[in-house]
Amino acid sequence: AALRQELLARLKAERVPFEERSRQLEELSWPQPESDFIYETFRFFAEKHPWVREAGIRPKAIGRELFESYAPFDEYVRRYRLARSEGVLLRYLGDVYRTLVQNVPSVAKTPELYEILAFLRMTLAGVDTSLLDEWESLLVPRPREEPDEAERLLRFDLAQDERARSARIRAELHRLVKLLSELRFEEAAASLRPDPDWDAAAIRRALEPFFSEHGTLRFDHAARLSEHTTIHEHGPRCWRASQVLLDPADQNFWCLEVEADLGSESNPQGPLLRLLRIGT
Which residues sit opposite 232 in a β-bridge? Predict the structure, then answer.
């Protein structure tokens, strides 16, 4: 529906005749990237596993669109007016996350897939941590009687998984940059570990010279390239990261620095990063 409205508005602005507008609207379909690859792969799989043929596949683009736009859950809900289907959307995203975690072998998980997993986990954690608690408890089997709380909390340790840890640090950095690019300083502060030195007002003040000089902070595909993020170990169970802030002139002299100190935590439910510095 949103695509139809956008196309119709553009065609009207270009004064395209009614008949031609109707034809283009009828031919419009939702984005189906890699559809040939997806269906051909399923066909090949079905040849070896014939019992799946009747089920077929119905690829969904919601998770892809959410990740590519890096939209927060509430923003996506507002964009498509999904307030009445918010629970359905949340459950769907949870199913995507769970399926990728449980069904994709570790050897097949690429850095790009870890980025997607980190983004989905961050999105779900921002809305309902109980879903994550329920599904992540399935990653390590445990007796059904009397679950051991200590075992549950230690079932997954970010300090022992470099790919998952780096992906989560990058995901939280990218969310922070997106919020800063939209001047959403209250939400930016809330996306970090609490620090009296870095409330919304302090973050705003630190970035005033940047916006005064450059006008806007870029957050696009280029801003999320790995070359703009560096992560290094800073101590036992502690890592520091630097994220380059892109400006319209591509000078890119500014950056922000954060710290991820796990301490005694294994897989924090809330924000992982603490802001250290914003500047050149």
Answer: 240
Report which secondary-structure segment, H or E, holds 62: helix 62-69
CB within 8 A of 68, min separation 6: which ones? none
Burial, 140: exposed, middle or buried (Cβ in 10 Å; 0-12, 13-18, 19+)? exposed
Closest residue by Cα to residue 254 from 165, 194, 181:
181
3-state secondary structure of 148: coil
The pLDDT score that the predictor gives to residue 151 is 43
Whole-number Å distance between alpha carbons of 236 and 159: 9
- Model confidence at 98, pLDDT cuts 50, 70, 90, reads confident
Looking at beta carbons, which pairs linking 163-167 to residues 24 or more positions away fall under 8 Å?
Answer: 163/109, 163/111, 163/114, 164/114, 164/117, 164/118, 165/239, 165/260, 166/114, 166/231, 167/111, 167/114, 167/115, 167/117, 167/118
Which residues, in sequence order, are bridge partners of residue 254? 245
pTM for the whole structure: 0.77
How distant is the alpha carbon of residue 202 from its chain centre?
Answer: 26
Q: Which of 176, 203, 157, 161 is nearest to 273 (CA)?
A: 176
Query: What is the distance between the alpha carbons of residues 121 and 125, in angstroms, rounded to a whole number?
Result: 6
Tens of pLDDT, residue by residue over 190-223, are 999 999 999 999 999 999 999 999 999 999 999 9
Closest CA to 121 of 141, 102, 101: 101
Residue type, 120: L
- Give the residue from 269, 264, 266 showing the smallest Cα distance to 134: 269
**CA angle, 193 as apex, 223 and 86 as ends, to 5°?**
70
